[in-house]
Design goal:
The chain is mainly alpha-helical. It has helices spanning 3-17, 42-54, 58-69, 86-108. The structure holds iron/sulfur cluster. Iron/sulfur cluster is lined by residues 21, 24-26, 36, 50-51, 55, 57-58, 61, 81-83.
Length: 109
């Protein structure tokens, strides 16, 4: 085993051991989880700010949430996750799907 493959394996093992969501700012002691359940208003704005300015796992959270919600209708989404509210995630999901479809069509042509 080369040092590089050993480190990849170790990294993989560490990744599996860590529950990234536990590292989220929303999981810190004293945080009100209800802040992340709102889509709009003061609580949602505060939640978004905490995601964007303080959360070390924001990108991972956003990618995970988009994956979980993929194809869902906007009405089945709720709250702030990955720094975006349900409408923003729905728009991002739609944009990503359109780009994927355009790429697939281009490759098939
Ligand atoms: S990005 Fe926001 S919702 Fe996601 S883990 Fe971080 S604080 Fe929580």
């Amino acid at each position: 085993m080369t040092p590089a493959s050993a480190s990849r394996t170790l990294t993989g093992r560490l990744e599996r051991r860590l529950d990234w969501h536990d590292l989220g700012t929303c999981r810190e002691d004293g945080r009100d989880p209800a802040m992340w359940e709102a889509d709009y208003g003061k609580k949602a704005r505060q939640a978004r700010a905490l995601c964007w300015l303080h959360c070390p796992v924001r990108v991972r959270c956003l990618m995970y949430t988009l994956e979980q919600e993929a194809g869902d209708l906007p009405r089945y989404r709720f709250g702030v996750a990955g720094g975006l509210n349900k409408r923003e995630r729905a728009e991002l999901d739609r944009g990503l799907r359109e780009r994927r479809e355009a790429r697939t069509e281009k490759a098939a042509a």
